[in-house]
Write a structure and sequence with these properties.
about 250 residues, alpha/beta, Rossmann fold, 2 domains, six-stranded mixed sheet, globular
């Protein structure tokens, strides 16, 4: 039986800031097309891990490999070109531009013609833009400025902007922060479609247990800079180590 290849391997990664150990010999691997959630309390090292994966931080020790190539120590721009894109907690959209224009910008960059002026000099790929808007349920919002979108729609738009870069690995940092229950469910459904329909590999940082349950994917739990548990939502929520270090009780 053929095994899906690993796309990301984090081996014994430690990140020190003076006397503070943010990551402590962390190991993590993802297979191509996998959706996985990293769960953990504030200060457990989740954001530091994303900073290491995207090149914002060089690990004190350990290695990170992506699609078989070592990326530890590469610049953020070089890592992005290899196919890793990150969504921050606060939507990184252009509020004064329309939904169409927001998607057209990363499309231009993916075609190696980055920048607003390059965008103005070329014809936008309207078919691809329409496809992305339809995927996110934003087809009727194309000419609306991003500032006018609801919070949940802004988050959907940024996910489509990541897809426009044609990245293979999407890193999503608390994508449902500040959302209503309905918006949270819609984002969970959209994220599941990224893997089930598009075959993207997705790593999500989250602390909302209800959202983690809706994602219905493998969960890695971090505490004190390292992994303390792996498994399904039901498995980790009943794990004594998770209850002690994160939940404080059975969820």
């Amino acid at each position: 039986m053929e095994t899906t290849p690993q796309i990301l391997e984090v081996k014994e990664v430690t990140m020190r800031f003076g006397g503070i150990v943010a990551l402590d010999g962390l190991n993590l691997s993802l297979r191509a097309g996998e959706l996985r959630c990293i769960l953990g309390p504030n200060g457990c090292g989740k954001t530091t891990l994303f900073n290491v994966l995207t090149g914002a931080l060089r690990p004190t020790s350990g290695t990170v490999s992506f699609q078989g190539a070592m990326i530890s120590g590469k610049s953020p721009a070089a890592i992005a070109r290899l196919g890793i894109s990150r969504k921050f907690q606060v939507p990184g959209i252009y509020p004064e531009l329309s939904v169409i224009e927001n998607i057209a910008l990363p499309l231009a960059a993916a075609n190696r013609h980055p920048g607003v002026w390059s965008l103005l000099r070329q014809r936008p790929d309207r078919a691809r833009i329409a496809e992305l808007m339809g995927f996110a349920g934003l087809s009727q919002k194309g000419h609306v400025t991003a500032a006018e979108l609801s919070h949940g729609e802004k988050q959907k738009l940024e996910v489509m902007m990541l897809l426009a870069t044609d990245a293979d690995l999407l890193l999503l940092d608390e994508p449902t922060a500040g959302m209503s229950k309905g918006e949270t469910s819609a984002i969970a459904a959209l994220i599941r479609k990224l893997t089930s329909e598009l075959g993207k590999t997705v790593l999500v940082i989250e602390h909302d247990m209800n959202f983690v349950r809706e994602l219905d994917c493998p969960v890695t739990v971090m505490a004190r800079g390292t992994v303390i548990a792996d498994g399904s939502y039901d498995e980790v929520r009943h794990d004594p180590r998770v209850i002690e270090c994160y939940l404080g009780r059975a969820a």
